[in-house]
Amino acid sequence: MNKTRGRVTLPSEGNFLNETKELMERWGADAIRDSDGTKLDDDIKQLDAKIYTTYFVARGHNDFAENRIEECQQLYLMSMFNTAVSETVEIDFMKGYFTEQVQPDYIHDPKKYWEVIDRTTGEIVEPDNWEVDEENNCVRVKKAIPWHEYTVSFLVFAIWDPTHMYNHITNNWGDKPHDIPFDVRGPQSNEYMRSFLTQWLRDNPDTDVVRFTTFFYHFTLVFNNLGKEKFVDWFGYGASVSVAALDAFEKEKGYRLRPEDIVDQGYYNTSFRVPTPAFLDYMDFIQKFVAEEAKKLVDLVHESGKEAMMFLGDNWIGTEPYGKYFEKIGLDAVVGSVGGGATLRMIADIPHVRYTEGRFLPYFFPDTFYDGNNPVLEANENWLTARRAILRNPVDRIGYGGYLSLAYKFPEFVAYIEKVTDEFREIYDTIKGVKPYSGLKVAILNSWGKLRTWQTHMVAHALWYKQIYSYLGVLESLSGAAVDVSFISFDDVISDGVPEDVDVIINAGDEGTAFSGGEYWKNEKLVSAIRSWIYNGGGFIGIGEPTACQHEGHYFQLATALGVDKELGFSLSIDKYFVQPVKEHFISADTTTFDFGESMKNIYALTEHTEIIEYSNGEIHLSAHPFGAGRTVYIAGLPYSEENSRLLMRALYYAANKEADFKKWHADNIYCEVHAYPSIRKMAIVNNSMEEQTTVVYDGEGKSKTVTLVPSEIRWEAFPNEG
């Protein structure tokens, strides 16, 4: 077998030189990295490879941080809800939190920076009516209204970095000191971060790439009193809050934030919440600050002749790779963890860097690499789901992380990754920079738009949750589909209308979330603009509770266009006669078993013009409807699967009125796909399953042939001769 080399990053560790050299050869690695908890020996650093060194800007410097509690990072937290049974209520506000991670901030005046709220009325309790008992971490509320609920929003210092804490617990690091995160807004911390990096760059001449992990503020990850995760939001800005930030925000924006603007009734502005103007202002404020300060560090790295790489994780808050300030940082590269196709595209599509890198799973940690487990299964699934997206837009490099010594004990895993790395290089060398065939332009419409490109419906990166898999499946399907995908916000449509090149808009999510839209759908400019666009030939797909907001006789504000609405009980007195499904439909032609995930209940047809495609249990789960010259499709939910990916593609072509184009560069077997690259006259016929598949393949001219693919095969073929 002819081995290829390059575009692969290998994790290594101390006392593992010979094995590292062996795997470098087998995997064709041209870069070596350390990981959290590992260090590279000098002899490893002398190997013929680029050396990545993990660099923590604001953690791992306990000699500096431990005596400067006033410049530690901070968070706003909210206490549990406390019911008043008399006119006095005592609130143990630290109840449920982990005191090894956070401790109350009594340095700054609680009367100025904390807030007690009557959660029954939403009113702020005047500071004169509550007192803080510092010894017992308790707030005593006077003149409380019996049977009302009260909470305290309070500031804490973060005294243990949450990623270090997670790794500490997972790997049983015992008495290893806890990394204390400091806040670079503090004058001493800001000076320290620059001077330490300057010296570090001198002390690490063998480092080629400084892998910032990441910059200043960790995503929101707070642990409970048992040392387990209490809440986690990969997009959370909670750890960027501080007294210094609050004061600077007031000076820059002209008004003062309330604690409630951050704790948000205990939801902490999760990305599922429709963002408030104040929180959007705060995000903008943090992003601008992070970009300015990060640029100073990147400039130092460049002056030393090294490259600057950012890890899209851990302390990434404020960087927002699709935001308006990211380009100013001047990074060379971004690396991120790949959980599947959507996360692969999230990394690969990032602008303003020279290269991107995906860290594939599994991580070489003992929670996966243990006797009796087969890590090949996870690696295979991870590769096949990500490969679809790579064939649309490849990252420039792939790699792994963790303890190489653990992975080395699993020879089948080592052999499998050897095949993966060769296949990746083959794909990259063939299509990087080549525009793939796209039959349609699809726009995902939500509150976040471009800022959160490929990031909708994620909580802890791309982990599975009951409430999101029916929607995240849409992005996963699209990540490797032959369509161009863009992300637009409701504000974009209100101010500029629908982009002219869009064929189909998708609005997917539960009612009231940032993804469905909530109160946005009361905006007549938004509703009118989209109705007009559909009526004049546009396609619209609603999934779950699209455009949902009870208002003026509709729950779905585009109900008339969609041809369906949801019964909330208000219209039970109105008979619903339209229940007969069509015998067959273009959208469901490849579907044998419907899977709508968590699905939706009580969806009903409004008129006889609604094309009911799937009707069961007295409700509609899949339908289509004409609206003027345009078409709409309703789907109750769409978890990721090969069958659902095909259903979505058919729905897109139907909504766009382009069914005739559906079989251009197409495989009729749902487990196979065709990726075409017209400018180089090549196509990849891909088996996305772990079993042999036979499929009819259609080229761009409508000609077909039958091919058989071995499990997971990717077969490259030249276009047929013209004429």
From TrEMBL:
Its EC number is 2.4.1.211. Residues 665-716 form the Lacto-N-biose phosphorylase C-terminal domain. Residues 6-437 form the Lacto-N-biose phosphorylase-like N-terminal TIM barrel domain. InterPro entries: Class_I_gatase-like, Glyco_hydro_b, Ig-like_fold, Lact_bio_phlase-like_N, Lacto-N-biose_phosphorylase, LBP_C, LBP_M. GO terms for molecular function: 1,3-beta-galactosyl-N-acetylhexosamine phosphorylase activity; 1,4-alpha-oligoglucan phosphorylase activity. Pfam families: Lact_bio_phlase, LBP_C, LBP_M. Signal peptide: none annotated. Keywords: Glycosyltransferase, Transferase. It is an enzyme of class 2 (transferase). Residues 441-659 form the Lacto-N-biose phosphorylase central domain. Coiled coil: none annotated. This is 1,3-beta-galactosyl-N-acetylhexosamine phosphorylase.
